[in-house]
Design a protein that fits this description.
By secondary structure, the chain is an alpha/beta fold. The protein folds into two domains: 133 residues, HUPs (Rossmann fold, 3-Layer(aba) Sandwich); 96 residues, Glutamyl-tRNA Synthetase, domain 2, CATH 1.10.1160. It is built from eight helices and nine strands. The strands form three sheets. It has a four-stranded antiparallel β-sheet with strand order 1-2-3-4. α3 packs across α4 and α6 packs across α7.
């Protein structure tokens, strides 16, 4: 991919680095809404003078002495930039164009914006049809993180007596684009709701008279599946 971008004059090499020239991609900013001219105008200090533009991002970096994760390349020993790794894996396993790309809201810019630029610059076609970005999961009102001591593993959840399916049920109580605040009180409520649904399903299976389940006539084949897909395809409702 890097060699392809260099061949198209979308990238350039300097001092063992290979940078992506964002001015060579007219669509830069279309995902995040950031306008290129505003980004460039806002840069004042600490600019790498080797770059054509302050916001150009590295596709390849030279390795410092002693670095273990380094590979030989036409530009010397080094390693790929953060963004190009994802484009390379996506194109290898999913192709140059695919339907759905997910991630957190904090990945929109610069990571996913740069993914689009390098992937579409390389292939010449649209990279992804739909971008799905999830909001952060909070814990007791704060962003969940090991450093703050409010991150929990599934094993810890189970050790407190909760069914892992209750955690999955809890996640469905908010749309993916909304923040969700995890508390053990909320998880207990999810466990209670899940138990009620299971009890209802059990009664329907074991106690219902098959002739009376449908008041008039049975539903059409696949009607329940079609109804489910209609809701899910409405922005993962």
């Amino acid at each position: 991919i890097i060699q392809g971008l260099l061949a198209k004059d979308i990238a350039y090499e300097v001092g063992g680095y290979v940078y992506y020239d964002i001015k060579r991609f007219p669509g830069y900013g279309k995902l995040s809404g950031n306008q290129l001219e505003n980004m460039l105008a806002g840069v004042r200090e600490g600019v790498d003078t080797n770059k054509h533009n302050p916001e150009d991002f590295p596709l390849w970096k030279p390795a410092e002495p002693g670095r273990e994760m380094a590979w030989d390349s036409p530009w010397g020993q080094g390693f790929p930039g953060w963004h190009i790794e994802c484009s390379a894996m996506s194109i290898k396993y999913l192709g140059e164009h695919f339907d759905l790309h997910t991630g957190g809201v904090d990945n929109i810019f610069p990571h996913h914006e740069d993914e689009i630029a390098q992937s579409e610059g390389f292939s010449g076609q649209q990279f992804v049809n739909y971008w799905i970005h999830a909001q952060h999961l909070l814990a007791d009102g704060q962003k969940m993180a090991k450093s703050t001591g409010n991150a929990y593993t599934c094993a810890e959840i189970e050790a407190r007596g909760f069914d892992p399916m209750a955690l999955r049920y809890f996640y469905t109580t908010a749309l993916y684009r909304s923040r969700l605040n995890f508390t053990f009180r909320a998880l207990q409520a999810a466990q209670t709701s899940l138990d009620r649904l299971r009890a209802l399903a059990y009664r329907l299976v074991t106690e219902s008279d098959n002739e009376r389940v449908f008041s008039e006539e049975p539903p059409k084949e696949n009607s329940w599946r079609d109804a489910f897909l209609t809701e899910v395809e409405h922005d993962l409702n």
